Amino acid sequence: MQRLNNKQSCVPPKFDAINRMRTVKILGIKTENCAVKTLTFKDKLCAKAQPGQFVMVWVPGVDEIPISISGISSDGKTCITVHGVGDASNALNEKQKGDVIGIRGPFGNGFVTSKGNVLVVGGGTGIGPLMPLTEQLVKCAKKVTVMSGVKDKENLLFLERLNELCSCVKTKPVFTTEDGSYQTAGFVTDQAKKMLIKEKFDMIYTCGPEVMMYKMFVLSEKHDVPIQASLERMMRCAIGLCGSCQIGELRVCKDGPVLNSEQLRSIKSEFGKFRLDATGNKIKQP
Ligand SMILES: Cc1cc2nc3c(=O)[nH]c(=O)nc-3n(C[C@H](O)[C@H](O)[C@H](O)COP(=O)(O)OP(=O)(O)OC[C@H]3O[C@@H](n4cnc5c(N)ncnc54)[C@H](O)[C@@H]3O)c2cc1C
Ligand code: FES
Protein backbone atom coordinates (compact mmCIF):
# COMPACT_ATOMS: atom_id res chain seq x y z
CA MET A 1 0.00 0.00 0.00
CA GLN A 2 1.34 3.42 -0.96
CA ARG A 3 1.78 5.73 2.05
CA LEU A 4 0.75 9.37 1.85
CA ASN A 5 3.44 11.91 2.58
CA ASN A 6 2.70 15.19 4.44
CA LYS A 7 2.04 17.10 1.21
CA GLN A 8 -0.53 14.56 0.02
CA SER A 9 -2.16 13.98 3.41
CA CYS A 10 -5.27 15.94 4.40
CA VAL A 11 -3.70 16.50 7.84
CA PRO A 12 -1.54 19.67 7.99
CA PRO A 13 2.16 18.76 8.53
CA LYS A 14 2.43 20.67 11.82
CA PHE A 15 -0.62 18.87 13.14
CA ASP A 16 0.72 15.56 11.87
CA ALA A 17 3.80 16.08 14.08
CA ILE A 18 1.66 16.96 17.11
CA ASN A 19 -0.44 13.84 16.65
CA ARG A 20 2.56 11.54 16.21
CA MET A 21 3.32 9.37 19.26
CA ARG A 22 6.68 10.23 20.85
CA THR A 23 8.27 8.19 23.60
CA VAL A 24 9.63 10.17 26.54
CA LYS A 25 11.53 9.22 29.67
CA ILE A 26 10.07 10.17 33.04
CA LEU A 27 12.66 12.57 34.49
CA GLY A 28 11.05 13.20 37.85
CA ILE A 29 8.13 12.13 40.02
CA LYS A 30 6.67 14.15 42.88
CA THR A 31 4.08 12.74 45.23
CA GLU A 32 1.54 15.55 45.74
CA ASN A 33 -0.84 13.67 48.06
CA CYS A 34 -2.12 10.14 48.73
CA ALA A 35 -3.61 9.71 45.23
CA VAL A 36 -1.92 12.34 43.06
CA LYS A 37 1.57 12.49 41.52
CA THR A 38 3.27 14.96 39.21
CA LEU A 39 5.44 13.45 36.45
CA THR A 40 8.06 15.45 34.55
CA PHE A 41 9.33 14.73 31.03
CA LYS A 42 10.96 16.59 28.15
CA ASP A 43 9.30 16.99 24.76
CA LYS A 44 9.93 19.79 22.23
CA LEU A 45 6.27 20.22 21.23
CA CYS A 46 4.93 20.14 24.80
CA ALA A 47 7.49 22.78 25.77
CA LYS A 48 5.51 25.19 23.55
CA ALA A 49 2.10 24.23 25.00
CA GLN A 50 -0.45 26.80 26.18
CA PRO A 51 -1.96 26.53 29.68
CA GLY A 52 -5.17 24.52 29.32
CA GLN A 53 -3.90 22.19 26.59
CA PHE A 54 -3.69 18.44 27.22
CA VAL A 55 -1.66 15.43 26.06
CA MET A 56 -2.71 11.87 25.31
CA VAL A 57 -0.50 9.71 27.51
CA TRP A 58 0.11 6.13 26.44
CA VAL A 59 0.86 3.80 29.32
CA PRO A 60 2.43 0.78 27.56
CA GLY A 61 0.30 -2.33 27.87
CA VAL A 62 -2.55 -0.52 29.60
CA ASP A 63 -4.27 2.37 27.78
CA GLU A 64 -3.97 5.89 26.43
CA ILE A 65 -5.58 8.68 28.51
CA PRO A 66 -5.97 12.47 28.28
CA ILE A 67 -4.07 14.47 30.93
CA SER A 68 -3.72 18.24 31.16
CA ILE A 69 -0.36 19.93 31.26
CA SER A 70 0.24 21.25 34.79
CA GLY A 71 3.68 22.78 34.32
CA ILE A 72 5.66 24.25 31.45
CA SER A 73 9.15 25.37 32.45
CA SER A 74 11.65 27.49 30.55
CA ASP A 75 14.18 24.60 30.48
CA GLY A 76 11.82 22.61 28.22
CA LYS A 77 10.42 20.35 30.93
CA THR A 78 6.71 19.57 31.02
CA CYS A 79 4.68 18.36 34.00
CA ILE A 80 1.46 16.39 34.20
CA THR A 81 -0.43 15.86 37.47
CA VAL A 82 -2.25 12.55 37.67
CA HIS A 83 -5.02 11.40 40.00
CA GLY A 84 -5.09 7.60 40.18
CA VAL A 85 -8.73 6.65 39.56
CA GLY A 86 -8.53 3.55 37.35
CA ASP A 87 -6.31 1.22 35.33
CA ALA A 88 -4.27 3.69 33.25
CA SER A 89 -3.99 6.55 35.76
CA ASN A 90 -2.96 4.15 38.55
CA ALA A 91 -0.43 2.42 36.25
CA LEU A 92 0.95 5.85 35.33
CA ASN A 93 1.33 6.73 39.00
CA GLU A 94 3.23 3.49 39.60
CA LYS A 95 5.88 4.42 37.01
CA GLN A 96 9.43 5.05 38.18
CA LYS A 97 11.98 7.68 37.20
CA GLY A 98 13.57 6.54 33.90
CA ASP A 99 10.50 4.59 32.73
CA VAL A 100 9.19 5.34 29.23
CA ILE A 101 5.69 6.53 28.32
CA GLY A 102 4.16 7.70 25.03
CA ILE A 103 2.93 11.21 24.35
CA ARG A 104 0.70 12.74 21.64
CA GLY A 105 -0.16 16.42 21.66
CA PRO A 106 -0.44 19.05 22.98
CA PHE A 107 -4.07 19.12 21.89
CA GLY A 108 -7.01 21.48 22.19
CA ASN A 109 -7.08 25.18 22.85
CA GLY A 110 -5.67 26.96 25.85
CA PHE A 111 -7.06 29.54 28.26
CA VAL A 112 -7.10 33.11 26.95
CA THR A 113 -5.41 35.39 29.49
CA SER A 114 -7.17 38.52 30.70
CA LYS A 115 -5.42 41.69 31.83
CA GLY A 116 -8.19 42.61 34.29
CA ASN A 117 -9.30 41.41 37.71
CA VAL A 118 -9.47 37.61 37.47
CA LEU A 119 -10.86 34.81 39.63
CA VAL A 120 -9.32 31.32 39.31
CA VAL A 121 -11.37 28.48 40.82
CA GLY A 122 -10.06 24.90 40.93
CA GLY A 123 -11.66 21.76 42.31
CA GLY A 124 -9.56 18.69 43.21
CA THR A 125 -7.01 17.76 40.51
CA GLY A 126 -8.64 20.44 38.32
CA ILE A 127 -6.21 22.92 39.84
CA GLY A 128 -3.50 21.22 37.66
CA PRO A 129 -4.14 23.05 34.34
CA LEU A 130 -4.85 26.25 36.29
CA MET A 131 -1.25 26.30 37.61
CA PRO A 132 0.56 27.30 34.37
CA LEU A 133 -2.34 29.70 33.71
CA THR A 134 -1.87 31.35 37.12
CA GLU A 135 1.86 31.64 36.39
CA GLN A 136 0.96 33.70 33.30
CA LEU A 137 -1.82 35.67 35.00
CA VAL A 138 0.38 36.92 37.85
CA LYS A 139 2.54 38.54 35.15
CA CYS A 140 -0.23 40.16 33.11
CA ALA A 141 -3.48 40.57 35.09
CA LYS A 142 -4.41 43.56 37.26
CA LYS A 143 -5.44 41.34 40.19
CA VAL A 144 -5.44 37.56 40.63
CA THR A 145 -7.55 35.71 43.20
CA VAL A 146 -7.05 31.93 43.36
CA MET A 147 -9.41 29.50 45.10
CA SER A 148 -8.80 25.78 45.43
CA GLY A 149 -11.30 23.34 46.90
CA VAL A 150 -10.64 19.75 47.98
CA LYS A 151 -12.35 17.10 50.14
CA ASP A 152 -9.93 17.29 53.09
CA LYS A 153 -6.44 18.32 54.19
CA GLU A 154 -4.91 15.09 52.79
CA ASN A 155 -6.08 16.03 49.28
CA LEU A 156 -4.61 19.56 49.19
CA LEU A 157 -2.54 20.30 46.08
CA PHE A 158 0.18 22.84 45.21
CA LEU A 159 -0.12 24.65 48.58
CA GLU A 160 3.40 26.08 48.48
CA ARG A 161 3.39 26.93 44.75
CA LEU A 162 0.05 28.74 45.03
CA ASN A 163 1.16 30.71 48.11
CA GLU A 164 4.33 31.77 46.24
CA LEU A 165 2.48 32.74 43.06
CA CYS A 166 -0.18 34.74 44.90
CA SER A 167 2.43 36.53 47.00
CA CYS A 168 3.84 37.95 43.71
CA VAL A 169 0.57 39.87 43.29
CA LYS A 170 0.04 40.50 47.02
CA THR A 171 -3.00 38.23 47.37
CA LYS A 172 -3.50 35.02 49.33
CA PRO A 173 -4.94 31.82 47.84
CA VAL A 174 -8.22 30.66 49.40
CA PHE A 175 -8.28 26.95 50.26
CA THR A 176 -11.52 25.18 51.12
CA THR A 177 -11.95 21.68 52.48
CA GLU A 178 -15.35 19.99 52.59
CA ASP A 179 -14.70 18.70 56.14
CA GLY A 180 -13.06 21.91 57.40
CA SER A 181 -9.71 20.19 58.11
CA TYR A 182 -7.82 23.07 56.43
CA GLN A 183 -8.79 26.74 56.17
CA THR A 184 -12.43 27.39 55.19
CA ALA A 185 -14.99 24.57 55.56
CA GLY A 186 -17.41 23.81 52.70
CA PHE A 187 -17.45 24.02 48.93
CA VAL A 188 -15.15 26.28 46.94
CA THR A 189 -18.19 27.52 44.96
CA ASP A 190 -19.69 29.00 48.17
CA GLN A 191 -16.53 31.09 48.70
CA ALA A 192 -16.52 32.09 45.02
CA LYS A 193 -20.16 33.17 45.37
CA LYS A 194 -19.23 35.47 48.31
CA MET A 195 -16.29 36.87 46.37
CA LEU A 196 -18.44 37.61 43.31
CA ILE A 197 -20.90 39.57 45.47
CA LYS A 198 -18.03 41.60 47.00
CA GLU A 199 -15.94 42.33 43.89
CA LYS A 200 -16.37 42.99 40.17
CA PHE A 201 -14.31 40.51 38.15
CA ASP A 202 -13.41 40.67 34.46
CA MET A 203 -12.91 36.91 33.95
CA ILE A 204 -13.43 33.61 35.77
CA TYR A 205 -11.27 30.57 35.02
CA THR A 206 -12.35 27.16 36.30
CA CYS A 207 -11.45 23.47 36.14
CA GLY A 208 -12.65 20.63 38.33
CA PRO A 209 -15.62 18.28 38.76
CA GLU A 210 -18.33 19.19 36.26
CA VAL A 211 -20.95 19.83 38.93
CA MET A 212 -18.60 22.47 40.40
CA MET A 213 -17.90 24.06 37.02
CA TYR A 214 -21.62 24.16 36.25
CA LYS A 215 -22.20 26.07 39.53
CA MET A 216 -19.44 28.49 38.52
CA PHE A 217 -21.06 28.92 35.10
CA VAL A 218 -24.44 29.77 36.73
CA LEU A 219 -22.67 32.27 39.04
CA SER A 220 -20.83 33.82 36.10
CA GLU A 221 -24.12 34.34 34.23
CA LYS A 222 -25.78 35.82 37.33
CA HIS A 223 -22.94 38.30 37.90
CA ASP A 224 -22.40 38.94 34.20
CA VAL A 225 -18.73 37.89 34.27
CA PRO A 226 -17.28 35.91 31.32
CA ILE A 227 -16.00 32.45 32.19
CA GLN A 228 -13.57 29.92 30.71
CA ALA A 229 -14.07 26.32 31.89
CA SER A 230 -11.91 23.30 31.05
CA LEU A 231 -14.16 20.31 30.41
CA GLU A 232 -13.45 16.57 30.63
CA ARG A 233 -14.99 13.99 28.36
CA MET A 234 -14.16 10.45 27.28
CA MET A 235 -11.42 10.82 24.65
CA ARG A 236 -9.89 8.49 22.10
CA CYS A 237 -8.56 10.20 18.96
CA ALA A 238 -8.09 13.71 20.52
CA ILE A 239 -8.21 15.23 17.03
CA GLY A 240 -11.95 15.68 16.47
CA LEU A 241 -12.60 12.52 14.46
CA CYS A 242 -14.16 9.80 16.64
CA GLY A 243 -16.93 11.71 18.44
CA SER A 244 -16.21 10.19 21.89
CA CYS A 245 -15.97 13.66 23.42
CA GLN A 246 -19.08 15.14 21.78
CA ILE A 247 -21.20 17.54 23.82
CA GLY A 248 -23.99 19.27 21.90
CA GLU A 249 -22.43 20.50 18.66
CA LEU A 250 -18.95 20.64 20.19
CA ARG A 251 -16.07 18.18 20.33
CA VAL A 252 -14.24 18.84 23.57
CA CYS A 253 -10.85 17.63 22.25
CA LYS A 254 -10.90 20.08 19.33
CA ASP A 255 -13.28 22.93 20.28
CA GLY A 256 -12.09 22.76 23.91
CA PRO A 257 -11.17 21.55 26.40
CA VAL A 258 -11.48 25.21 27.43
CA LEU A 259 -14.96 26.52 26.56
CA ASN A 260 -16.08 30.14 26.93
CA SER A 261 -19.43 31.53 28.14
CA GLU A 262 -21.01 31.49 24.69
CA GLN A 263 -20.00 27.87 24.05
CA LEU A 264 -21.18 26.81 27.52
CA ARG A 265 -24.57 28.46 26.87
CA SER A 266 -24.86 26.42 23.66
CA ILE A 267 -24.44 23.12 25.60
CA LYS A 268 -26.55 24.15 28.62
CA SER A 269 -28.89 21.15 28.28
CA GLU A 270 -25.95 18.68 28.61
CA PHE A 271 -23.26 20.55 30.58
CA GLY A 272 -23.27 19.28 34.19
CA LYS A 273 -26.07 16.83 33.35
CA PHE A 274 -25.03 14.19 30.79
CA ARG A 275 -21.93 12.64 29.26
CA LEU A 276 -21.11 9.82 26.84
CA ASP A 277 -19.79 6.62 28.41
CA ALA A 278 -17.07 4.37 26.95
CA THR A 279 -19.60 2.75 24.59
CA GLY A 280 -20.97 6.09 23.36
CA ASN A 281 -24.21 5.90 25.35
CA LYS A 282 -25.51 9.12 26.87
CA ILE A 283 -25.52 8.75 30.65
CA LYS A 284 -26.46 11.06 33.55
CA GLN A 285 -23.55 12.76 35.33
CA PRO A 286 -22.96 11.29 38.81
C1 LIG B 1 -9.00 17.03 28.50
C2 LIG B 1 -8.83 16.18 29.73
C3 LIG B 1 -7.86 16.51 30.64
C4 LIG B 1 -7.68 15.72 31.78
N1 LIG B 1 -6.70 16.07 32.66
C5 LIG B 1 -6.47 15.30 33.74
C6 LIG B 1 -5.41 15.63 34.64
O1 LIG B 1 -4.71 16.63 34.48
N2 LIG B 1 -5.20 14.80 35.68
C7 LIG B 1 -5.97 13.69 35.89
O2 LIG B 1 -5.71 12.96 36.86
N3 LIG B 1 -6.99 13.36 35.08
C8 LIG B 1 -7.26 14.13 34.01
N4 LIG B 1 -8.26 13.79 33.13
C9 LIG B 1 -9.10 12.61 33.45
C10 LIG B 1 -8.37 11.34 33.04
O3 LIG B 1 -8.23 11.32 31.64
C11 LIG B 1 -9.19 10.11 33.49
O4 LIG B 1 -9.18 10.08 34.90
C12 LIG B 1 -8.58 8.84 32.95
O5 LIG B 1 -8.82 8.79 31.58
C13 LIG B 1 -9.16 7.65 33.64
O6 LIG B 1 -8.61 6.49 33.03
P1 LIG B 1 -8.28 5.19 33.88
O7 LIG B 1 -7.92 4.09 32.94
O8 LIG B 1 -7.31 5.49 34.95
O9 LIG B 1 -9.65 4.90 34.59
P2 LIG B 1 -10.93 4.08 34.04
O10 LIG B 1 -10.81 2.73 34.64
O11 LIG B 1 -11.04 4.20 32.56
O12 LIG B 1 -12.07 4.93 34.67
C14 LIG B 1 -12.11 5.26 36.04
C15 LIG B 1 -13.17 6.35 36.21
O13 LIG B 1 -12.78 7.56 35.47
C16 LIG B 1 -13.80 7.88 34.52
N5 LIG B 1 -13.14 8.32 33.28
C17 LIG B 1 -12.50 7.53 32.40
N6 LIG B 1 -12.01 8.25 31.38
C18 LIG B 1 -12.36 9.52 31.59
C19 LIG B 1 -12.17 10.74 30.91
N7 LIG B 1 -11.53 10.84 29.75
N8 LIG B 1 -12.66 11.85 31.46
C20 LIG B 1 -13.32 11.81 32.60
N9 LIG B 1 -13.54 10.71 33.31
C21 LIG B 1 -13.09 9.56 32.82
C22 LIG B 1 -14.59 6.62 34.31
O14 LIG B 1 -15.94 6.92 33.94
C23 LIG B 1 -14.53 5.96 35.66
O15 LIG B 1 -15.47 6.50 36.54
C24 LIG B 1 -8.50 14.57 32.00
C25 LIG B 1 -9.48 14.24 31.07
C26 LIG B 1 -9.66 15.03 29.95
C27 LIG B 1 -10.70 14.67 28.96
S1 FES C 1 -11.70 12.37 21.20
FE1 FES C 1 -12.27 11.85 19.18
S2 FES C 1 -13.51 13.49 18.58
FE2 FES C 1 -12.72 14.12 20.50
CATH topology of the largest domain: Rossmann fold
Kindly provide the radius of gyration, computed on alpha-carbon positions and rounded to a whole number of angstroms: 19 Å
- The computed structural class is alpha/beta
The global form is globular
Order of helices and strands: HEEEEEEHEEHEHEEHEHEEEHEHEE
- Outline the biggest β-sheet: 7 strands, antiparallel
Cα distance spanning the termini: 46 Å
The overall number of domains is: 2
Helix content: 25-40%
Bound molecules: flavin-adenine dinucleotide, FE2/S2 (inorganic) cluster
* CATH arch. level architecture of the largest domain: 3-Layer(aba) Sandwich
Mean pLDDT: 92
Portion in strands: 25-35%
Give a count of the beta strands, DSSP E runs of length 2 or more: 18
CATH homologous superfamily (4th level) name of the largest domain? Nucleotide-binding domain of ferredoxin-NADP reductase (FNR) module
